[in-house]
Design brief:
Length: 206
Amino acid sequence: MKYQKWENLAHKYNRLWVQKYSLGPTRREVLKIVLPKLQADASLKLFEAGCGTGQLIQEISEQYPQINYLGIDVAHNMIGLAKESVKGQNILFQLCPVEDFKNTEKYDIIICTHAFPYFPNKEETLCKFADLCNPGATVIIVNSSTNSFKDLMINFFLKATTSKARYLSVKEMKVLFQTAGLNLKEIKVIREKFYMPTIALFHLEK
Ligand SMILES: C[S@@+](CC[C@H](N)C(=O)[O-])C[C@H]1O[C@@H](n2cnc3c(N)ncnc32)[C@H](O)[C@@H]1O
C-alpha cells in the first residue's frame, strides 16, 4: 500500500528521535507565528494537512480551545491516534489524502509540517491551499529541503523511511508559491544539529 510506512510509524511516531531535533523545534517555530495571531483574534479557523498524530493541533488547542480546527491525514493509524489523544468540541480530524480533500469552508491559518514532500501533486496542493484561504490568511509550510550536496545525502537516507518523497529546494518551492498566488513573507531555516538537512519554514500570506 502506497502509504503503509506512515501506518507502521504511527504508534511510535511521538517517540521518534526526530521529535527532538526536527519535529519538536518545528512546532516551536510554528507556534511563534500562530499564537500571536490567535491572541489577536480568537475566531480564526485553522486547517492542517498531513497532521500525523495531531501534536501541533494539541499544542495550539491547549491554549486556544475555542478555535475551529481541522486536521487531515492519509494514514488511518495517525488519525486514530489524533482522535484518541486530542479532544475538543471544535477539533475535527479526518482521514483523507490531501489530493482528495474538498471543502467549501475557508481558513485563516493553513499549516503543513513535514508532510508536503510526500504529497503527490505539489503544484495542485498549493493551489488547493490558496483556494482554502480566507483573504489575508497565513500559510505555513515546513519541510526538509535539498539545497546542497549534504542535504541531498541526508534526504536520500530520510526517504528510505517514508512514503515516496521529493524534498524540493527553496528555489523550487518559491516557483510553486508564485504559481499558486501565495506571497512569501519569510523563510526561516531550522537547524538544531549539523547532521540534520536544511529544514525550511515558509511563512506565506494569501
Ligand atoms: C512526517 S509526518 C508529519 C506529521 C506532522 N505534520 C508532524 O509535523 O509531525 C508526514 C505525515 O503526512 C501524512 N501524509 C503523507 N502523504 C499524505 C497525503 N497524500 N495526504 C495526507 N497526508 C499525507 C502521513 O500519513 C504522515 O502522517
